[in-house]
Structures are given as C-alpha cells and as structure tokens.
Amino acid sequence: MSNSNPAKQISVASDGTNGAVVGEVDPSGNAWVQEGSGSRIQLPYTGVSRIAVASDPTNGPLVAILVNGTAYAYQGSAGGLTSAGNGGAERSGGVTSVAVATDPTHGPSISVLCRSPHPG
C-alpha cells in the first residue's frame, strides 16, 4: 500500500475468507484501506489521526477511524466508510484512540479511549 509518502500510522488484519485488510493514515491526514487484492481506497474524511482494522470470515472487514476526537466505524467491507453516511459516530468528543476486533460468533468490538473527564 505504500506510496511515495511514508505512512503516519498503519493497521493490518486478515482472515481466511476476506484476505488481508490494510488501513493507512498518510502524513496529510488522509485514510486509505485495501481489502485483499482489491484497489486501495481513500476514505472521504480529512484530519484522520488513527485507523484500526479487523476482519472475520462471517462479518467481513471492520474499519474504524479517529477524526478530530470522533470515532467512526463500519463493518462489512473495507470501503464501507467511503460513503460518509455509512460511518456512524461510535463516540464523539474527546476520543484519543480507537481499537477494533471482530469474530464470527460475537461480531464487532469497538473500543475507544477518551480523555478524562469525557465532555459528553
């Protein structure tokens, strides 16, 4: 996934059905995802500081990003956040970090770390 600019942050996951999922935040704050051998897709958000990816064979890829203190997440395809309306704000205001996991039985887990005290 690399281009001429070094990545600011990267996250990688894989499963036997969907293959590898790679998420990258470039130095300009743009987020990119790639699922399996598919094309690299730029997400329509600016100011992205963190990205987290996970995947399982039943639920598919899970991608979460952090934009100006708000975490957005989508599961089902690596490019699901390409439509800004697909990414529900999982938590807004004060989020400093995001992590994700998923499994075929229990589905997604999205965790956020907020500064204390949380403003919302």
Characterization of this structure:
The strands form three sheets. The protein has a four-stranded antiparallel β-sheet, with no helix packed on it. Strands 5-6-7-8 form a four-stranded antiparallel β-sheet, with no helix packed on it. 38% of the residues are buried. 0% of the residues lie in helices and 55% in strands. The chain is built from no helices and ten strands. The chain is globular and about 40 Å long.
Quantity of strands, as a count = 10
Work out the radius of gyration. Answer: 14 Å
The side-by-side strand order for the widest beta sheet comes to: 1-2-3-4
Q: What's the average pLDDT? A: 84
Low-confidence stretches: none
How do the SSEs run, as a string of H and E?
EEEEEEEEEE
Briefly say what this structure is.
The chain has 120 residues and is an all-beta fold.
Notable traits:
single chain, 120 residues, mainly beta, four-stranded antiparallel β-sheet, 10 strands, 0% helix
